[in-house]
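Let us practice reading a record.
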Amino acid sequence: INGFAGRWLSVFPNGGSACVHNSAAHEMMGEAWRLDWKLARLEEDGSVVSVTFEAATTQTPFNLVRTITLRSNDPVFDVVETVTNTSRQPMSFMWGQHLTFSAERYGDGDWVLDVAATRAETNTGSFLDPDARQPGLRQNLFPADGDFAWPSLETVEGVAIDGARIPRSGSTENCDMIYLHGCDGWFALMNRRQACGVYMRWPAERLPYLWYWQNFRGSLGYPWFGTGDIFALEPFTSYPAYGLAEAAKRGVQCELVPGQSVTFPMNFGWIEGRSRISNVGDLPEFRVHASHLES
């Protein structure tokens, strides 16, 4: 995790904690986020620009290709990421996108997470977290292995909390992971007062989970030392955030045979004129080529 600078990260082939799986040592959050992505192609056609980057993992045999497309006067951009198994044997992986947001920027009391989730698990499997063996390093607001009907959450003391509302900056000090089920391939972070926000769409069948990580100055010791004041929204293939080995035990890992590829298309955009997204029909149409869902 050294060198983490927030922003939008691709998490692959390991999600969450470091682990060993099939004799391979996987680092925390996998390799993809720290790879040296190289420019492979730049295409410009009038008002449309597409940039393609490529990278190869070094601890595992995968090739990654990411294409970002922007259109003039369009507040939505497209991201398409393709993963290929370059080995001669089947390979397992977890894959997700880690979008980081500033708790201070979104903590004015007006921002709400709109999502189609029906169920929320809190700190699932947290006994696997290395910090669990060092009492006091992780300040959890929500119970381990909690299971709630979203957005109605309860704290470890039984206090009811609206999980959809982004907490006011400085109002809490906690570090928790919330796993949202039934998100239907989208989330929207909306400002109720100013009627605007950002949203993301993805293929729900390929990324069935949304991780909602809260680090509101509640993680002491390395690497945050109580200074982290961020949260992240992470569409993911698998859960919980305790590595590929744990995902494999639960049977929620992904697998590619030799030479096989899989593609993950996504849209991310800005919305104005709406204070709330009630369902996917309130969002712009998902821009995805049919071929992206065939592989």
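A brief commentary: Helices lie at 243-250.
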